[in-house]
């Protein structure tokens, strides 16, 4: 395997995530305790957890979990689902299965770093940037122009991390049609699906639009359960799923048995958990609106279309990298500066930072941020 570069986000988090006093850049929704999650279980799943044998599990994933996941799709069955140890393993193995030297991929930026660096380690990659001057719009003509005869994958992420952008349903359907027409696999990172501020803007899942498309999801983000480490890919190309299973034999082999039962409980209670998390984000947004209104001379703020992260612009003279460094060192408030989202493929804004809006009680962190900002004036 080609050596991958340092994962900038994880390196940064290794230094600050568990030491900063105010984690204001979290990418996941508010989590829950084990007791709270088990309270959502039906009698059968509670008994399954309490009497669980701690042996190996199936490489594809627990059949009952796959069935529960499949229920959230319109056109997929349990046999179209394969589970992984989080979304990162799924993304990594999918790119290694889909791409070889001599192939080509198209990746939309900005994105989660692995969406770019893993394909780049395997083949040529063309980036297509969301346009910050047009509310992070995606230009489908740029996607079309980037496609080559050897293009095998087009990789997208909506709601987008870090911008919170959601494209129109018609554009997403057109993208799936374009990929099908060209014999390309659409790889769709859908980990924030379900946290749209306007539920009417919820995109269809790619696996429902195309037999070739891969829908990536996970319990970590919208459901707020990253500690379970359960992700999945849904794809109606079962030969491709078989190749993914064989690739997984070289990584985790199978998932944690307790995590699969707990994930099953969460997936079955998905609507209630998502309703709770959307309500929390809606309740949090006025505090963020008020903070950025106070400092409108140095920040440009727009609430995200979906997900639980936003990507405001910093207009101050010292630059966003220095802002974030001083802020965490001097006030304990953690943000992610634009350098974390630097792309080798496209120009990327250097004046943005990621802020999380999905955790409970953000007021304390925002107060510390505001106090520090006032002291700079």
From TrEMBL:
UniProt-recorded name of the protein: Aspartate/methionine/tyrosine aminotransferase
**Which Pfam family, any one, appears in the UniProt record?**
Aminotran_1_2
Is Transferase found in the keyword set? Answer: yes
- CDD domains to which the protein is assigned, alphabetical: AAT_like
Superkingdom assignment: Bacteria
Where the record annotates domain Aminotransferase class I/classII large, the positions are: 39-357
Q: Which GO terms describe its molecular function?
A: pyridoxal phosphate binding; transaminase activity
Q: Which Gene3D superfamilies match?
A: Aspartate Aminotransferase, domain 1, Type I PLP-dependent aspartate aminotransferase-like (Major domain)
């Amino acid at each position: 395997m080609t050596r991958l570069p340092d994962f900038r986000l994880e390196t940064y988090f290794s230094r600050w995530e568990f030491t900063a006093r105010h984690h204001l850049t979290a990418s996941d929704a508010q989590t829950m305790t084990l007791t709270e999650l088990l309270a959502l279980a039906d009698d059968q799943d509670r008994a399954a957890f309490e009497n669980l044998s701690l042996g190996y599990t199936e490489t594809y994933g627990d059949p009952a979990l796959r069935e529960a996941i499949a229920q959230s799709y319109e056109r997929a069955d349990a046999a179209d689902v394969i589970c992984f140890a989080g979304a990162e393993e799924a993304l990594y193995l999918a790119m290694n299965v889909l791409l070889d030297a001599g192939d080509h991929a198209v990746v939309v930026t900005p994105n989660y770093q692995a969406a770019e660096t893993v394909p780049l380690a395997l083949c040529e990659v063309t980036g297509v940037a969301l346009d910050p001057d047009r509310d992070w719009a995606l230009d489908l003509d740029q996607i079309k122009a980037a496609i080559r005869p050897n293009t095998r994958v087009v990789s997208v992420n909506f709601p987008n991390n870090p911008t919170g952008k959601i494209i129109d349903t018609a554009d997403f359907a057109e993208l799936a049609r374009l990929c099908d027409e060209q014999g390309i696999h659409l790889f769709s990172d859908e980990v924030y699906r379900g946290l749209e501020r306007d539920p009417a803007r919820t995109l269809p899942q790619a696996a429902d639009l195309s037999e070739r498309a891969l829908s990536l999801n996970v319990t970590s983000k919208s459901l707020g359960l990253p500690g379970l480490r359960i992700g999945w890919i849904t794809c109606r190309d079962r030969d491709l799923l078989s190749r993914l299973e064989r690739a997984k034999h070289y990584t985790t082999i199978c998932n944690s048995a307790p995590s699969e039962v707990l994930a099953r409980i969460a997936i079955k209670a998905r609507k209630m958990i998502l309703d709770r998390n959307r309500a929390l984000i809606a309740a949090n947004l006025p505090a963020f609106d008020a903070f950025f209104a106070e400092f409108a001379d140095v920040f440009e703020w727009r609430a995200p279309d979906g997900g639980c992260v936003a990507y405001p612009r910093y207009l101050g003279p010292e630059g966003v990298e220095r802002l974030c460094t001083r802020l965490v060192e001097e006030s304990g408030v953690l943000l992610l500066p634009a350098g974390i989202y630097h792309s080798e493929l496209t120009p990327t804004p250097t004046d943005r930072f990621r802020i999380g809006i999905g955790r409970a009680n953000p007021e304390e962190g925002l107060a510390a941020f505001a106090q520090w900002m006032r002291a700079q004036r």
